Every structure is written in structure tokens, then in C-alpha cells.
Amino acid sequence: MHRITGKAGGDSLIEMSPSDSFNDDINGYHQNASASAGSFQQGQSESPLTPDVCVETCESLNTSLASLAPSDHSDSPHFEDQTLERINALTGIDKQQHSKDSVFFRDGLRRIDFVLSYVDDKDGERKQERRKVYEANLVNVGLELETEDKSESEDGKTYFVKIHAPWEVLATYADVLKIKVPFKANDIPDTKEMPMNWLSTPFRLPEHVMHPEPDYFTAPFNKSKTDFFLIDDKDTFFPPSVRNRIVFYILSRCSYYRDECADKDKKGIKRLLNNGTYTAAFPLHDCRYTTRSRDANCESERYNLYKHWARFFCFFKEQPLNLIRKYYGEKIGIYFAWLGFYTEMLLFAAVVGTICFIYGFLTYDDNEWSKEICNPDTGGKIIMCPLCDKKCGYWKLNSTCNSSWQSHLFDNVATVFFAIFMGIWVTLFLEFWKRRQARLEYEWDLVDFEEEQQQLQLRPEYETKCTNRKLNRITQETEWVLDRTATDIMGKLLLCWATVLLWISLIIACIIGVIAYRLAVYAAFASIMKDNPTSHLQVVGPYITPQLATSVTASCINFVIIMILNLMYERVAVWITDMEIPKTHMEYENKLTVKMFLFQFVNYYSSCFYVAFFKGKFVGYPGKYEYMFGSKLRNEECDPGGCLIELTTQLVIVMTGKQVWGNIQEALVPWLMNWWGSRKARNHPESLYSRWEQDHDLQGFGQLGLFYEYLEMVIQFGFITLFVASFPLAPLLALFNNIIEVRVDAWKLTTQFRRPVAAKAHSIGAWQEILNGMAVLSVVTNAFIVAFTSDMIPRLVYMYAYQPDGEMNMKGYINNSLSVFNISEIRLANRPDDGESPSWFNSSITTCRYRDYRYPPGHEKQYSHTMQFWHILAAKLAFIIIMEHVVFLVKFFVAWMIPDVPTEVRARIKRERYLVQEYLHNYEVEKLKIQLSQNGHNDCTCTPMIYPSIKHEVLSECL
Fold first, then answer.
1. What's this model's pTM, rounded to 2 decimal places?
2. Kind and range of the H or E run holding 783
3. Which helix (H) or strand (E) holds 730?
4. 397 with 860: CB under 8 angstroms?
């Protein structure tokens, strides 16, 4: 492998001053020769090296290095590998021994912070040139590289470039990125006490897993004040997650071109991965997840996460959030904190929803209207009008007996209570999460993250498009800006949102297609089942009706369409967002979040909205039916038991199907791909299957990996809030799913994916506003479901105003809720074909019934709405207004009562800020005193300098 050394001027990201000790020798071997020898001496304790042997070894080493001078062999593709082999041979280091399951360079001292892999293609001269220049520029920045030849890899064709960031690089970029580090132990007593704390003992994890480090006050790192911070060991001061984050920041901005600023697009590891120059770039896991690392210097945090978090049998245990944050970074830690809190809150909603369902089950026998439907003398004598043209015959009301009983389980008085409860629960969930998030922000040093970090972490894709520099009024520093004209902005916006509307129209077209399927297939099912051919089936036979068969098959087809469209939405949303060229990573994710959620919202919920608010509302009546878009397909009618049971069926199939399919896809697909990819190497011992090869064979988590996890949970949140009035057991299903989801996500992240690059995030981002919007919308949708989809309001109006005997019961409700139509007045196009009506139907039957409130034939206002219809409509609108106002008032009162930031956390934040200022002031004063005393001792009259004169040129003109 040809490695170029030396500095190339403007190619570097941060050009170190001469005082910064960076060795430009190949891979830093000159600088580490003594360390390697020390490592060797430690491993051969039985026969220690004598001084004569050390001198002889050093002389041989110098002679060997001189023989491999760059003047003759530096252009050799494997020059540095030959050098390394000679060094190892002379120092006695066993290359294979140091290439086992280790996260260190061959010297056993320098930690591997990042790994790049590539395959040297036959026609890859351009790629080889890119790699050579790119890696030379990485060396210029100060990173140290070590290459594993393809002969050492399991497949015999993959090279691995291991990257180590020395202290100077870490310190410089920690200063640039304003990474907070400890400077003093926290002296604020923790007064937080949980009542009945002993009850949570079975759910706790060991103390060393939950709190591996003491609490400290922290401040942004400043390289010129290293003695201000608590630095015990420079090698372990920055944890691996911070190290790989810094290295990735460098990789994302380092160029791979020779001529200074010749082509701004040729920059960053992402482009090199896209054009195939490198096949993968990833930080290493610290050990295998099944066993601890044999190296005492390795933390084995992956093993602890797998043992205490990722296994399913730990489902009742708390999550080690501090360890998750330390290993994977704050962004992933925040996600699992939110998911765990959401699951905890679901427990309360699931308990109340189950109680409401049990209430419906216990009041099963008190269901007076279902008794009337099933009664042969009542429902058995009521002849209903055909539900479709030609293929549907007349039918008796008691044929819907079973669906009426089923509907009562979800359509009862408890439904109203549960809808109100869920409106309040959503508010409590969001407000308590804000408090939990505020506590995590303080504990994880994220309080001032947004203000300090966002302007620094620009997307490389944005930087490469920038052509002008502009003064930032806040920081008073010049920064790159994108030259956007008004025409360009408007053109891209129009194109983007036109594409969004096009795809939403495609979703609506698919929903209309499913509706057409419902109408066409219902007629077929009605014709087939007119003589009850399914009644002979045991258990399920009596429950299979044309309505149920149509609803179930249509829901399944709709679910399949949803899954297919989802595959296309992702690419479209990413393409649109890329066109907008967002400035920061957070801005990119927020824009993508809005578009993807808009797609998914319409995709998943449109069918439920149709069943809840449109089906059965625009039917007309037997003499004047309404048709879909002027076609021959008559608009759907609701089941005599109500549309609520159909909404429940739709919700259960889509929600359950999505959750089951999602868990299978998340767990099974990565496992199968990893199993197939590592089939040759999985039986190899550790000595032949190195740590970087093991991780290389895993799946890449990707920059948007967490985005899809949030999206899945937010879609589920919509199901349990927007339509929960139709299915009180939805929170219970979501609870069971999330208990599995936490462990599935943990398992796949720990065992099936490469270690993601650590990233900071102080909140769940745009998802917070989406959840707030859905919380408000859920109150409206549930109020409309109770009012217009459920039969609750018509029953109450009948019981209080239209009960003929003046009693508070539901006797006679069924007869009251059905209108009468003269069969002879049915149009010829609407009448059943010969043979479609059942055998019991004859010419003596002159009228049929239908669901509506209209005057009977012969009345002066025949077939127009009765006064009872308008009373019911007024009651429905009044209920919606009252319920919305009550719930919103309670929501606002609860939100006002619960502060977003706990008082204790607010006090600790103020205390920490005060101490940071105080200690920094004392530090500067003491440093000034020392300098003044030194100046007085030396009789120097120059002005004392508090800050060193070393300056760093941050983000050169090439950026």
C-alpha cells in the first residue's frame, strides 16, 4: 500500500503548529518503535532484554529502516507493509498475535478508532489514486494509519485501514466541537427519593451497569487549559464513542484531491463510499457480544449491553441508559430512553383500556338492542332492503345477530370514558416526557448543545455546494453559505411539493381502488352466501357474513398495498430532501421527518379515516341511492351493527400486521444477511477472525437507521390515539409489541449491526412536534368517532327523548332506528335479479327496512328526514363541542401544572453554570499569579500572557 507522507498545505483540515508534536514518518512507526519494543519486552518476561541486546536490536532496526528509504521503495504498493514486517521481525512482535480479537494496533498500545475497508479492483487505478491522496491527507491532519494486507483477511481480497487518533488530534477537535468534559466532582447532594423504592428492586440492574462513572461538573474542552480538567490518563480521557465521533468528523471533511481547492466536491468519506473507493467505514465494537475481551484495557461494554439489555429475558428490567449513551452516543440513548418511557406510560393506558373491554364483556347480557336483533319475533320478522344492486337480495335483520353482539364489546358507555381518558393520557405522556428529557439533557451534558454545536456540524454535502462566505452576526465569524437565488428556491420548492402531492394522490387512488374492490366483492360474497353456505363450518361458520368477508379481505389487500408503497416512499422522500440541500444534519433529518411522516400518515390512516367518517354516510335511501363518482358501484352501507366494528377490524389488521411484519423484518433480515455473509468465517477461531473482519461482516446501521425506528413507533402512536375509541385494546397490543420492540432493537443493534458512529442529540427532534400535533388531532377524531361512527348518541337520544313508555331503557330502539320503504317503489336497476332473494321471500312482503330516520310511505313528507334525525345530529355536534372543550381544558390545565423542567434540575443547571464561571475565574487568576511571579523573578517587563501563542487554523479555505 502506497502511503504518502508530509503535509500538502491547504489540504489539511486543521494545520497543527510546529509545537504540536506530530511525526510524519510512515504510520508513526519511528515514533512507536520504542513502544513496540516495550510491548515485546513485557510479553517476554521470562527472558528480559539486556542492554547489549537492546542496543543491538536498535542498531539493526535503524539499519533496516535505512535500507527501506523512500528514495528507492516508497512507490511500492506494499512499502509500509514490508517495513512493518521488518520491524516485527526485529522486535519479536508476532503479527498474528496482535491481530486477534483486538481493538488495538499491532503494537498493542494505540487504539483503533475507525476502520476503512476496500477491495483492490483490477481496473481500480483511479480508486487507488483517490485512496492514496485521501489517506495522505488524513496523515497530514494528524491521524495514524495501519493497513492489514488482503492476505491477512478471511476472503483474501479485502484490505483494512485502521485509524488511530492521537491525543493532539483528539484535544484539537474536542476544542473545535466544544465537547464537554469533567473538571470537578459534583458536590450537589442528590435529594431525589422515590416513594416505595423497594418495590422496584426486582426491575433494577446492578449498580456498576447503571452508573459506571461518578457524577461530574463539566465544561467545554479547551486545549489551552488542559490542566483545568480532570485528566488522569490521556489514553482513556475521551471514551471510544467520543473518539470515533471526532474521527468521523475528520473523515467527512477530508479531501481526496491533490491540487489545492481544485474540486470542492471531492471531499469526505461518504463520497468515497458512494463511488466504491472504500467498501465500508465504521468504528469497532470493543469485543464479541457473547464473551468479554481478553485484553484488560478493553471495556467489554458490548458484552455488558448484551447480557443486561439485549436479551429478551431481561424484558422486565430497566434499561442501562447511561451505558447505552456511553457506548452508542446520546442520539441513540435518547431514542431508547423515549421508547422505554413510552412503553411505561402505555401500561396505564393498557390497564384502563382492558377494564373498558371487560366492562363491555360483563354487560354483554344487558345489551337490549342486540337481544331485539336476535329475537325471532323481532329481528326475525324485520325484512331489510338489499345492500347492493342486482346481486343482493332481501334479508332478515337477525342474520346480523353475531356482529351486533361483537359490536357491543367496543361500542358501549365505557367507550366515551376511554376516549376522554386517552385525550388526558396523551397530555400526561408528553409533559412527563419533557421532564424526563430535561433530566437527561442535564445528566448527559446536552443543555447547551444546540446553541454551541449546530453551526459547527455542517453537512459535507452542504459545504461542497457553498460558493460564498458571509459574516455570522452571532459568532462574528465568516462562514460558508449557499448561493440561492429566489428563482432557484421557488423552483425547487414547487418541484418538491408537487412530488409530495403526486404521491399523496397515488395513495388516495389506491384507497379508492380498495373501496371499489369492497363494492364489487361485496355483491359477489352476498350472492354466494345467500343460502348461508358457511354455516356448516364449526366455530367460525356462524360469524362469516358478506360484510365480514369483504372487510377482512379488503383490509388485508390494503395492508399489502401499504407495505409496497412504503418501499417507494423512502426513496422519494430522501430524493426530495437531498434536492433541498439542508445545512445541518438536524435540519436534514427534520425535513425528511416531515415528508416521510406525511406520506406514512396518509398511507396508513387513510383507510381508517374512510371507514370511520365516510363509509355509510353518503348512501341515500332505496328510492334514491348515491353512487361512487357516477359509476355503477353503489356507495357502501354500514353493517346494521354499525360501522364501528368494521373500523375495529381495519385497525386490528393494519396495526397488528405492521407490528408483526416490522419485528420480523427488523430481526430476521439482518440475521439472515449476516449469517450468509459470514458463513465461511463463523467457525474460525478468534486468531483467524479479527475484530475488524467480524464487524465488517455485520450490517451497516446507516445515518437514517434511527429515523425508521422513530417512524415506526410514531405510526403506532397514531393508531392508539387517533382511533382508540373504536378499539380499547389497542394500547394493550402496543404494550406487548413495545416490550418486544425494545429488546429486538437492542439485540439487533448489539449483535447484528456495526457500531454506529456516536452522535449527539438533545431531544427527539421533529418527532416531538409531530406527537404534539397528533395529540391534538386525536381529541377531534375520537370525538367524531363516538359521535358519528358509534351508535352511542342515537341510543342516548332515544332513551331520554323517544322511549315510548317513558322508561330509561332501550326497548323498541331497533324498530325506532329503522325506516320503512315500499318495495314497489324501488327502481328496476336497484332490484335483485331473479333467484338472488332467499326462498322465504314472496309477493306478500310489500315493505322493507333500512337504517335511517325518514318518514314512511304515505306520509306528507315521505322519505324526508324526521325531526328525530335533526335532534340526533344536534346531539352529535353538541357532544363533539363539549367533549373537545372538556378534554382541551383538562389538557391545558395539566400542561400548565406540570413544568417542562423539574425544579431540581433547573437548580442544578444554574449551580453548574455558576461553578464553571467561578472555577474558570479562579483558574485564570492563579495562572496569572504564576506568570507574574515568574516574570518578576526573571526581571522581565513584557506583558504577561494568559493564553499560549499556539494558534490553530480551523477549517481551512478548502472547506
1. 0.80
2. helix 766-784
3. helix 730-747
4. no
